[in-house]
Amino acid sequence: MDPCIFVWNCRGAGSRKFIRVFKEYKRKHNPNIVIIVEPRVSGATAQNVIKEMGYDKQLVVDALGFSGGIWLLWNEAEFNISRVDSQAQFIHVLAARTGRPEDKWNLTAVYANPAPIQRRQLWAALRRISESQELPWILMGDFNSILHPSEKLGGGGGSL
């Protein structure tokens, strides 16, 4: 069975609505691994929300104020996941299904800073990671990058 990985830029995980919507999605799709980007909460508030989401393991890059953040959640009965590297814009892990350590792969969860200068640091780090890859690699998240202004829906204006 392949992993079911769910990535959501929720733009705020501190509300009851977030929990309600997430639990409905979880009931319907039963994701094994969950990546929440831009939760906009950290510390005790984040831990309370994460606990309510129903996963027993987590890796967290805290939001800076009300900006950014990455949560990687899973159940230990299904996956063994260990942090290889993390910075403000990503979490890079080694993963294997529990009981099948020979089937290893890497996963990098990304929330790119909206500021282009900060994103350059992310791209440099991802380049370093890619050059050292010997295993299958899943790279996913919100890269805060579009090719053309017509791709953008909602939100504030931005410069390309």
UniProtKB/TrEMBL annotation:
Q: Supply the name of the protein.
A: Endonuclease/exonuclease/phosphatase domain-containing protein
**Species assigned in the record:** Linum trigynum
Q: Which residue intervals define the domain Endonuclease/exonuclease/phosphatase in the entry?
A: 8-149
The GO molecular function terms of this record are: catalytic activity
Q: Which Pfam families match?
A: Exo_endo_phos (PF03372)
Reading the lineage from the top rank, the first entry is: Eukaryota
InterPro entries with a match to the protein in the record: Endo/exonu/phosph_ase_sf, Endo/exonuclease/phosphatase
